Fold this sequence. Notes:
The chain is mainly α. Helix content is 69%, strand content 6%.
Amino acid sequence: MPMIMNRQASGWLRLRALIRKEAIQIISDPSSILIAFVLPVLLLFLYGYAVSLDSTKIKVGLALEDRSTDVESLIAAFRNSPYFILSVSFSRRELERDLVAGRIRGLVVVPADFSRQRNWQGGRPALQVIADGSEPTTANFVQNYVQGVAELWLQQRAMETGRPAPVPVTVEPQMWFNPSRESKNYIVPGSIAIIITMIGTLLTAMVVAREWERGTMEAMMATPVRIQEIILGKLLPYFGLGLGSMLFCTLAATFIFQAPFRGSFVSLFLFTSLFLFTCLGIGLLVSTLAKSQFVAGQFALVLGFLPAVQLSGFIFEISSMPPIIQGLTYLFPARYFVQGLQSIFLAGDVMSILTLNGAVLAGFSALFFLLNARVTRKRLE
């Protein structure tokens, strides 16, 4: 019994020494500081301010072929809209040249019989909308926004003239979880997945691969340190680094970007821990197999960063992807982490979502931990 306790005590001492050694190496390594502290700040502000799926202030031209008082009121309605930067002209060809040159993203043509159609009993005036199809998303926004402005203007003019508005149905929209409809409210939480992936996968892969290149990893394995202790000694310092980055990103998301946070910090901590262990396992496995900083960095980008951006639902909705690609997303842990993050921030602790995705992340963590132990042991034989 005393011998077992001495072995356990010596094991804890070795693990503490390994963690201390790794922490010193992180602090003294400029690349680690860059990836762990500078890069998250840049990514967070890039996704928070530069990446936006909200189309506002779209440059649109208004070609006037009718010059009645109704048209003057319609121009005012477009100018008062927060969605458009309006260019008004009596020359349709001039605005068409601007559309071809990319100076405007859409063209609204007010036909010559616009007022006559509106004043005719039962008539419904028509507007022609020409959008720049080279950017389909913006083109759809132009068409929808123009229709919305026109419908609202028709209702207002009907009230002013005492005529019934030619709108048969009144729609009362209600938006759950993101009532302001701002894309930053789900992009900023999703960017935490990208940052954790960078720290967990790329940083671990690069640093450990450097030790293989320098031969310090072989020297460490020649000591009585166990494989499990080496793995934990490598993972735990970067685990703490990732949690610190997560805390910083959460504070920035809620206080700087004003993103809602409706869940609990306990759920966020547990969920991030599972994903972080998975990323660390991927980085350690890649560095063990590659043993080269360049190769390890490339594999870390392909297996970690790119799937986290393209296949996680962070920006591109998974349900709109082809069925084959949708099936492929299930192979990448970032998909499950992004779903959990968006639930915690926007909807709260929805246990059905967190439990399912957390269980999958736990399975990924265990899988990569076992693979690391097995692969490293083989390298020692």
